[in-house]
Structure formats: structure tokens, C-alpha cells
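call fold(seq) -> C-alpha cells
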Amino acid sequence: MIARTMELTISTLSGWATITLITAAGLVPLVARIQAKKRLPTESAPTRTHVLLGMGVCIVCFLHTGVALPNVGAPGAAAGGMLAMIPASLGFALLIAHAGLGLQLRRQKLRDRIKKRRMHTVTATVIFLAACTHIAALVTAK
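ret:
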């Protein structure tokens, strides 16, 4: 019983760490762009920070998924049901695509940069909304 409680705690902590990193990674380019009043070059310090935070998001998200999946039958997780699982699965899949787009954007001579940048923004928004839906379903579950 103690091990299951510890796993749920690790699952909860890793989940909150994931959404914290997602928020931080998203705010870095937004704040930098507002301050600079233009889009930043790919080699700028805020862009590098965004990339590092994004890699951290991937690592913590994979950890969260690995710790949470064995606890899907736990009362708190089961109460969230499919309303929690579907956005989590969508966000997880999109995170992989988002990271791929982000790594492509690091290349200086990228074709279709505007299209890739827009897709990077769209996937980031959907990931954030999926994470918020996942959290809301788990927090409000009874």
C-alpha cells in the first residue's frame, strides 16, 4: 500500500512539474518577443532557453506517463475516466510532434519556416489546452 501511495505522489508531482515546465517554456518566447517587439533569431538566448525547457518538458512528461500508467486503476485516476485519459494521450502524442517541429526550426535554412512556425504554435496551444483539460478532469473527479 505504501508503494502505491508513493507512486501516486510521484505521479502527481511529475504531472505538476510537467505543466509548470510547459508554462515556463511557452512564456519564454512570448515575453522575449514582447520585450524585443519582434521575433527573435534562432540563436538568441531566450530561444536556447525555450529549447532547453522544451527538452525538460519532454523528459518530465515521459516520466509522468511512465509513473502514471501503472496507477490508472487508482480511485483518483479512475474517477477522471476517459475525460482525463483522452486529452492526456492527445497531449503526449502532440508533444512528440511539437518537439520535432521545434528542432526543425533550429535549422537556419529551413524551407517553409513560416508554416512550421505556425504549426509549432498551434501544437503548443493544443498541448496546453489538453493538459489543462486533463488536470481539470482529475482535480474535479470524485
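Residues 98 and 122 are 9 Å apart (CA to CA).
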